[in-house]
Specification:
The chain is of the alpha/beta class. Helix content is 27%, strand content 35%. Helix 2 packs antiparallel against helix 3, helix 3 runs antiparallel to helix 9 and helix 7 packs across helix 8.
Length: 484
């Protein structure tokens, strides 16, 4: 009896806090706004051809090998067919996309130097506030270019590099050339090829041997313009024994025309290093989000992908980790939420290339108002990789009969000693849960939102507090008007 009373008291406290937070009182205006592009320094015409690629490279004054890389990637993009699996991409019209536009040329390290409309955008999104809260470093990309970038001086003194990808290429050309396009080849898939041809912006991170960056580096990617394609490129190198946590956040206003986000992220985790990469995205419902992310983990290194997917017309994203040497560990925690007219096709891939490597994939998804989520994943173990352990768990929540969820797990095991576990569940919210919470004073909408927030908690509890609060707000925004 005492245990039951204690449980009721804890639930009552949770319910009270939920009411106090006013779950459905959320400011949509924080994300759904845009500014005119009439004062932009550069705006390309719509469409993609060799001239487009050459103009981007010329604007950036890149070395010859980068232009050659871009042109080979353009050829690969034109030759590769559109994917016939995953989300429906048939309405993408590459000829109606603007592939480069910039509100200014130079990456600023002083907030006062940022163009006024860009400053207004970042201010409303909270980037200056985030910097004041003493993040290790902050970067902000506005359409095609990184407009603001800064890092704490004490980390800079230790040799930590946190620059835009363009600045990284200029300041560390040999280091970039050594690793750029090596984790994800330019012809890996159609959208990696597209990014490789027209990439602009993104982040370059290098953490020296045994240096631990114990406070996150943050990058914010904002699409402001209509009918636009954002193609940032990120390269993170953690040297031996290094540690770093990189967080990216994404948002865009809603337009009636389609836009495209196609990023490439490459991570090199050298022996005994630890890299954590967190994404909290809130793309508008007109954006196709087609991203390639991959990491190489070497001896006793750990790579953790924490991937939060909310918004977009369609998302196809499968962070992958190649465990290349003994003792390497890979972890992926992915959450996705799909509403009306949305398809979140997400998951993870972990490839065991060495013995005594371990991996964990935990995927959670919520489908509502006729939305669709899909888990698509791969666990692969090569012959001779003894002592491999892997665990995959997929949990899906359906909020109404019109919604849909699918699971496409691929398991390729060529080593009989490997220990592999896979579990998948699909559930719906029970009437008894709703009845109990409404009997405690919540409305039905608040009760539904509270259950979804609890379902997503394994992801949110891994985030720094301010990001956990932000993700919960995004979920609340998606849940509004889910009842009735």
């Amino acid at each position: 009896m005492a245990k039951r009373e204690k449980a009721w008291a804890m639930t009552s406290a949770i319910d009270t806090r939920a009411r106090d937070r006013q779950l459905t009182q959320t400011d949509y205006g924080k994300y759904d706004f845009s500014y005119s592009t009439k004062n932009y320094k550069v705006v390309f015409d719509k469409g993609l051809n060799e001239e487009t690629v050459r103009k981007i490279s010329a604007i950036k004054k890149e070395p010859g090998w980068v232009l050659e890389f871009r042109l080979r990637a353009l050829k690969a993009f034109n030759e590769k067919p559109m994917p016939e699996w995953g989300a429906d991409l048939s309405e993408i019209n590459f000829g109606e996309i603007i592939y480069y536009m910039s509100a200014g040329k130079d990456n600023k390290t002083s907030w006062d130097e940022v163009p006024e409309e860009v400053k207004k955008t970042f201010d409303r999104l909270g980037i200056p506030e985030a910097e004041r809260k003493m993040l290790a470093g902050v970067g902000g990309q506005y359409d095609s270019e990184v407009m603001y970038h800064n890092i704490r001086k004490d980390l800079e003194a230790k040799g930590v590099v946190f620059l835009s990808m363009d600045e990284g290429l200029k300041q560390y050309p040999e280091l970039v050339k050594e690793h750029f396009g090596k984790v994800i080849p330019l012809n890996d898939n159609k959208f990696a090829a597209l990014n490789s041809a027209v990439w602009s912006g993104g982040s370059f991170v290098y953490v020296p041997k045994n240096v631990k960056v114990d406070i996150p580096l943050q990058a914010y990617f904002r699409i402001n313009a209509e009918s636009f394609g954002q193609f940032e490129r990120t390269l993170i190198i953690a040297d031996e024994g290094a540690q770093v946590h990189y967080i990216e956040a994404c948002s865009a206003p809603r337009f009636s025309t389609q836009s495209l986000h196609s990023a490439v992220v490459e991570i090199i985790a050298k022996p005994n290093s630890h890299v954590r990469y967190t994404t909290v995205q809130n793309w508008a419902s007109n954006i196709y989000n087609l991203v390639t992310k991959r990491a190489f983990a070497y001896r006793n290194a750990t790579v953790s992908w924490l991937d939060g997917n909310i918004g977009s017309r369609a998302t196809m994203k499968y962070p992958s980790i190649y465990l290349r040497e003994e003792g390497a560990r890979g972890e992926v925690l992915s959450v996705a939420m799909a509403g009306k007219g949305q398809h979140q096709d997400t998951g993870a891939k972990i490839i065991h290339l060495a013995p005594n490597t371990t991996s964990t994939i935990n995927s959670k998804s919520v489908s509502k108002d006729g939305g669709r989520t899909s888990y698509r994943g791969l666990i692969k173990v090569l012959r001779g990789c003894k002592g491999v352990r892997s665990n995959v768990q997929c949990d899906a929540l359906l909020l109404d009969p019109q919604s849909r969820t699918d699971t496409y797990p691929y398991v390729e095991i060529d080593e009989p000693t490997a220990t592999i576990a896979h579990e998948a569940t699909v559930g719906k919210i029970g009437e008894d849960q709703i009845f109990y919470l409404t009997s405690r004073g919540l409305t039905e909408a608040e009760a539904l939102t509270l259950i979804v927030l609890g379902f997503m908690q394994p992801f949110t509890k891994t985030l720094p507090l301010e990001y956990a609060v932000e993700l919960n707000r995004l979920i609340e925004m998606e849940m509004e008007n889910s009842v009735g």
